[in-house]
Structures are given as structure tokens and as C-alpha cells.
Amino acid sequence: MTATVATGAAPAGSGGTIETGTYDLVSITLYPGDAGAFQVLSPVRKTVTIAHGTAGAFDTQEVDAAGTYLRRQNGSITVSGSMLTFTPTCPTTDGGNNGAGTVGFTFTPGATATLAVVEPHGNNASVVEVYQKR
């Protein structure tokens, strides 16, 4: 998936009831805000598996691949309203954030369920990644 650049403000997350399953990245949109140009890993293939859901808490596995770059990450997601908080468990946090943090989200159920993740990047910049359930 190759990132596209949009103008204006990124959409806000509206929450929803996340379904367990495997999700593939179908779009990446950069909203540069006041930050101007910034880069993300693109083109990239991403797959996220969400499992063991219990009342707003899930186990998750993520795989990111781009050229020779490969990253695998396990962790937990907790849901509060329209926000997701990711806490990595493997690899463990080493002083960097290893992707840990809180982001907005919108889950849209249906035959082609989607999970949109809105990640802030400072100075009103955001990245919106949309995943579709297999």
C-alpha cells in the first residue's frame, strides 16, 4: 500500500465495537497539518490480528513489511470510547516507544468490516490507516 496525501484535518475517530479477526491494510492517508511534509513507511504491507476480546481488551499481533524491512510485534489493545491504547509485549519496550500509544479509531461492521486508525503526529498532522477484515 502506498500512502496518499490529503488536505484539511484528519477525520476524528468515532469508536465502535471491534470484532476479532485478521485485518489487512487497504489505505494510508497522510494529513500534514501544520507540520508540513513528513514521511511514513510507504509502500508497505501490514496485517493485524485481533484476538481474545474481552470487554474492551484484546491481544494483537502486527506484521509490517516493506522491501527488506520486516517488523513483527505483539501486544494488547484496550478500548476507551473512540480511543485505542496499544501496549507492546514483544519486543519489550527498550526506552523507545515501540509503537506504544493511544490513537483514535472507527470500526465499521459488515460484510467488509473496516478498522480505521487515526494516529496523531504533532502540529495537527495525522496518519489514517484503514484495515479491512478478511
Explain this structure to me?
It is a single chain. The protein has an eight-stranded antiparallel barrel. The protein has a single domain (4-133), classed as Lipocalin (Beta Barrel). The radius of gyration is 14 Å and the shape is globular. The model has no long low-confidence stretch (mean pLDDT 88). It has strands at 4-5, 21-31, 45-54, 57-66, 69-80, 83-90, 101-108, 114-120, 126-133. It has no helices and nine strands. With 134 residues, the chain is an all-beta fold.
Quick summary of this structure?
With 134 residues, this protein is mainly beta.
Please describe the topology of this protein:
Layout: E1 4-5, E2 21-31, E3 45-54, E4 57-66, E5 69-80, E6 83-90, E7 101-108, E8 114-120, E9 126-133
Parallel strand pairs: 1-2
Antiparallel strand pairs: 2-3, 2-9, 3-4, 4-5, 5-6, 6-7, 7-8, 8-9
Number of domains: 1
CATH architecture: Beta Barrel
Number of strands: 9
Helix-strand string: EEEEEEEEE
- Residues in β-strands, percent: over 45%
Q: If you consult CATH, what is the topology?
A: Lipocalin
Shape: globular
Unreliable residue runs: none
Helical stretch tally: 0
Structural class comes to: mainly beta
- The CATH first-level class comes to Mainly Beta
Name the CATH homologous superfamily. Answer: Calycin beta-barrel core domain
Largest sheet: 8 strands, antiparallel, barrel
> What is the rounded distance between the termini?
16 Å
Oligomer state equals: single chain
Mean pLDDT: 88
* Helix share, percent: under 10%
What strand order characterises the main sheet? 2-3-4-5-6-7-8-9
Gyration radius, rounded:
14 Å
